[in-house]
Structures are given as structure tokens and as C-alpha cells.
What does this fold into?
Amino acid sequence: MEIGKRIRQLRTIKSVTQEELANALNVSNQAVSRWETGITMPDINLLPSIALFFGITIDEIFNPSPEEKLERLRRRFYYTEDYLSDDEFKSALSFLKEQEGVYDDTAEIWHLLAQLYLNRIEKDKKIVDKYAKKAMRLDADKSFCVRFLVDSEHAVYSDWDTANHSKTISFLKEMVARFPDVFRYYCALINNLIADRRVKEAASYIAEIEKRFDKEEFVPIFRARLALADFRKDDATAIIEETYRLYSHDEGTVFDIAGFYGEICEYEKAIDFYQKSYELLESPKMYDALVGIARTYEIMCRYDEAIGAWEKVKENLENEWGIDEGTQVETVDREIKRIRGLMCNQT
It folds into this structure.
């Protein structure tokens, strides 16, 4: 049984509310709710207190089966942006390596191993970013650290042979040939070809998805970005305007239109379309569009409005997802603090 289900079972047996348990453990109601729904797990340091509260041993709290452990990892990766602690990483890695070759779906184990290492990479990127910037701010001779930002922040690198996506493109071409009915591989391939301005190749794959898939709303967005990569801005804009006329009801398309206007530096339009895409969402709403608004206001040096947009992200986390603590909230707080620093530098 998953630990969250076990806690809910123990709480029900003892006839206590989530609030009573939260108060006893000095955590929020939302934290207990997230445990019980399997989105996150209680911190390992809380296990003695949980066991004491329910009058049981720590071992009696949980004894999950392999399938329950896998499901817990899936939920952790898919429904939260929290980073695993070193102990959690080592435990998950050991378990997944044990399941490799034993579990009947090897691809799923490899998928989760990739997710596990990606979680650690994303965590470490923030640390790289932190110390690289501290070094550069302190000592001008440490300007080489700007190279680290290519990996930690996706900064641009000037060497074409390093910056192009040829390895990724070659792999995605292999995937499209092997799995010609998987739409996601075509999308990834086209996006990378367009990023490298390989417009003729991208056009051929766009034509292919028109023939193979009933995804007509994606095609004009691809064609607009293709025209932009081919230095035909007026054609690209005309395609986008017609796309909005046809698909103004589709949140994903409107979100992509916002990104298009951001790419051509028409920031007011980008903000307008991000807002429209957010309003089209049904609850619980994802907050990507709000982040887009915040980033765009920052580019425009409208820092008060950027902070206001980040505050709306926090409201979304709490009101739509019941999250008022953890990595996602901490990330928003760091962004607000960073932008306040930009305001101070401006003055």
C-alpha cells in the first residue's frame, strides 16, 4: 500500500481530520492532502512523528509493492516539480536498477530512469547557475563562467558547430522512420529543423503530418514558424492571423500564437494572447501562460507588472492545485526576489 493511502487509512481509523494531523506534524493541510493523493511523500524526517502520532512503528507505516513504488515515482515526476533529495535519488536509482530486466515493461523502467536523472540534472542546473553568477559578479576574470549558462539556462553559444541540433535531428529522423504513426516525434523533429533553419527538410515533414494525422490546428503554426525561419515575416504574420480566426477557441493554439508574437518582439500582443489562452483553460488551470506573461513583462523592463504576474502564478498554485509550499512556490519566490533586485539596479 502506498504511504499516502496508508496515512489516510490510519487517519480514518483514528477518526482525525487532515487539519488535526497537519497541526500535530507542524505541516500544512495541503501537504497532508498531497501525501494522501499520492502526489508527494512526507519528508523522511517526519516518519518517526507520524508513527508516534498513530501509535505504530515506522515499518508499519508502509510496505509498498514494486508496482506501488513505480506508481509513486510516476506521480512524483508527472504531478510535481519538487526535486528529489540525495537520499531519495539513491533509493529510487537502486530500486529502478533492481527492476531493470525483472519488470515486464523494460521501456517503462528506462523511461523512469531517464526521468530520475533529469530531475537531478534540473536540480543541479540551478546550483550551477547560482555559483557561476556569484563568481562573475565577484571577479571579472571569471567571465568564462558565462559558458556554464549555456547548459544551466539554455543561453546561446556562438559556435554554430556546437549550437546546432544535428545530433538530435538525426535521432528524431530515426524515430520517425521507426514509428511513423507517432505524432510527437514529427513535432519534435520539425521544431529542431526550424530552429536550425533547415526549412526545406522541415517543410517536407510538415507535408507528411498533413497526410498522416488529423491535426490540422498544428500545421499553420508550423508553417508560420517555417516562414519566419525563412525570413518571410509578413507571410508568417498573415498565417498567424488566419490561424487565430479559425482556432480562437483552442487554448493550445492561442498559446502558440502568443509565443510567435514574443519571438518577433511584439510583446504587447504576446501578453494579450497569453492571457487569452489562460482564460480558455478549464480548472485546474496550468500556469504556463502566466509565466509567459511574467517573462514578457520582464523583457519589457516593466518589473512591477512582471512581479504581479508571478504573484498570479502563486495564486494559481494555491487555488488551482492546493500548493502553498515546496519547490514550485520557492521558485516563484526566487523569481520575485530576482526581479526586485533588477528594480534596485535600475534605480
